[in-house]
Amino acid sequence: MFDFDELNEECGVFGIVGHSDAARLTYYGLHALQHRGQESAGIVTTNGEKFHVHRDMGLVTEVFSSDEVSKLIGSTAIGHVRYSTTGSSVLANVQPLVFNYAKGEIAIATNGNLVNGDKLRKELEANGSIFQTTTDTEAIAHLIARSNADTLEGAVKETLNQLVGAYALLILTNEQLFVAQDPHALRPLAIGKLGDSYVFSSETCAFDTIGATFIREIEPGELLVVTQDNEMCVTRFSEPKETSICSFEYIYFARPDSDISGINVHTARKRLGRQLAKEAFAEVDVITGVPDSSTSAAIGFAEATGIPYELGLIKNRYVGRTFIQPSQELREQGVKMKLSAVRKVVEGKRVVMVDDSIVRGTTSRRIVNLLREAGATEVHVRISSPPVKNPCFYGIDTANRDQLIASNHSVDEICKLINADSLAFLSAEGMIEAIGRPSNEKNRGHCVACFTGDYPTKLYDALEVEETV
To answer: Where do the annotations place [4Fe-4S] cluster binding (predicted)?
Structure first.
C-alpha cells in the first residue's frame, strides 16, 4: 500500500430492525459508508431464533455477492465496515464480532476506540477471560457475559459505564437490538425510519441511499432498546458529558451529503474554505483542491476570493486497496498512480492548493511537486484545519506524536519540507466558527484534542504507555 499521508477513521456501523429485506438494505447502507473503512466488512442477521453471519476482508462489493446476501436470513441486521486502528487487520477482528455465552448469541459492531481497552483486557484476562481477537470491542462482550445484572439491558448498562473513550455501538441478540452513544458523542450515530422499521447509521447518507427518513441523532449517554416487533424503549446508561464530536467528521471523514447536528458536511467545508481565504489570502491565478475531501473547501476559498476554481488535480478512482505495489524505484512516485495534475489548468499559473490536513507531510510534498512538474510557477498550500500536533486515541490512526509533522516542525519548516511557496493553516477559532455548530458547550461541542492537546476523557492506556517508556 502506498505511503499516503491520510487520516483514516476506524469504521462505520449500520443496523435495521423489522424489515423483510434487512440484509440487502444493510449491504446498501454499508456501501454508502464504505469511505469510513475499506479493510473489511461484515453483516449479521437474525430471524429471532439464530444468527446468520458473513464477514471477510475487503470492500463491501468484494465481500458480499448477491448469493451471500441472500443467505443472510432475518428481518433484523447489523453491519460494519472497518479500518483498523487497534487490533491488526485480520479476519478474526472483522466486525460484527459474534459470541455465544450462557444467555445466547450476541453480535457487536462499534465505531470508535476505547482509551481504557487495554486496561479492561488485562483485568478480564486476570479473571480468566480468554480473548480470541486483538480488538478492544471483544472486551465489551466479556463484560456483558460476566455481569450479574438480572436482565440483558442491565448488563449492557453496567458494561457501558465501564467503557471510556469513543463508541457508537450496536449490540444484537435474537430478541433485541441495543444502540448506544458514548457520553461525549465523539463519533456520529443517527436514527432513521423506513416504513415501520428503525434504521441506525454512522452517517445520514446511508439513509438517503435506502430511502429512509432521518429522525434524530442518538444523544450522548443514551441507550435505545429495540425489539423484533419494532417497539423501542429510550433509556440512559449515563448522563451526557461535555459533547465532543470529532472535528474531522466535518473536515474530512464524513461524506459531503451527510448531515451532522443538522449541518450539511459539504456546506460546512465550503465555510471552512471561505474562512481560510479570510485568514490566509494569496494572490494567485487559480484555486484547486486535493480530491475528494478538499474539493468543497477549495470551492469555498475560490468563492470568497473571486479567483477561479479549477480541477487542477484528478483522482484515479481505480487505484484501490488491492492495487499492485510498484517497484522500489517507483514507490516514491506512487502518488502519481492515485493523483495526476491537469497540465493545461496549472501550467504557467500561480496555484493555491487547498487540502484538509497535513499529517506526516509526505503526500503534501509529492502533490506540490506534481503541480510544479505540470508547470505551476508557484504553489501556495492552504489547509482547512489547524495543524495536527497531538495524537488521537478515539479511533483515528495518529496514536504516535512522532508521526505528526506539525508536532515537530514550525509552519515555516513544514512549508520548506513540502516544497511550497507558502503554507497556512486555518485557526482553531476560525474552524469552530466556520462549521457553525450552535452548541453553548466548550468548543461548540467539538473535540479539538488533535489540535490543542485538550482531551475530553482521561487517557488510561496512553498514560500507562507513557509511564513505562
So the answer is: 246, 392, 447, 450
Q: What is the pLDDT of residue 397?
A: 72
Name the strand (E) or helix (H) holding 21: none
The CATH number of the domain where 282 resides is what?
Answer: 3.40.50.2020
Residue 128 and residue 19 share a domain: yes
What are the binding residues for [4Fe-4S] cluster?
246, 392, 447, 450
Please state, in angstroms and as integers, the Cα–Cα distance from residue 421 to each residue in 114, 217, 372, 415, following that order.
Answer: 41, 43, 11, 7
Q: What's the pLDDT at 90?
A: 79
Structural domain including 81 reads: 11-241
* Same domain, yes or no: 419 and 360: yes
The H-assigned helical ranges of 280-361 are: 295-305, 328-331, 343-346
Q: Say which residue, 326 or 276, is predicted with more confidence.
A: 276
288 and 179 inside one domain: no
By C-alpha distance, which of 147, 150, 36 is closest to 95?
A: 36
Provide the 10 A C-beta neighbour count for residue 249.
23
Is residue 154 situated within a structural domain? Answer: yes
The C-alpha atoms of residue 24 and residue 36 are separated, in whole angstroms, by 19
- Let me know whether 233 and 273 are in one domain: no
**Rounded CA gap, 370 and 342, in Å?**
10
Residues annotated as binding site for Mg(2+)? 293, 355-356
**pLDDT tens for each residue of 353-363:** 999 999 989 88
Q: Which three cell numbers stand for residue 342?
A: 491537469
**CATH for 36:** 3.60.20.10
User: Residues comprising the binding site?
Assistant: 246, 293, 355-356, 392, 447, 450
- pLDDT value of residue 331: 47
Residue with cell 450515530: 189
Asked whether residue 222 falls in the same domain as residue 327, the answer is: no
Say how many CA atoms lie within 13 Å of 438 toward its Cβ.
3
Looking at residue 6, its pLDDT comes to 60
Residue 401 — very low, low, confident or very high, per pLDDT cuts 50/70/90?
confident
The reply to whether 5 falls in a domain is: no
- Round the CA-based radius of gyration of the chain to a whole number and report it: 22
Asked about 11 being catalytic, the answer comes back as yes
Q: By percentage, how much of the chain surpasses pLDDT 90?
A: 82
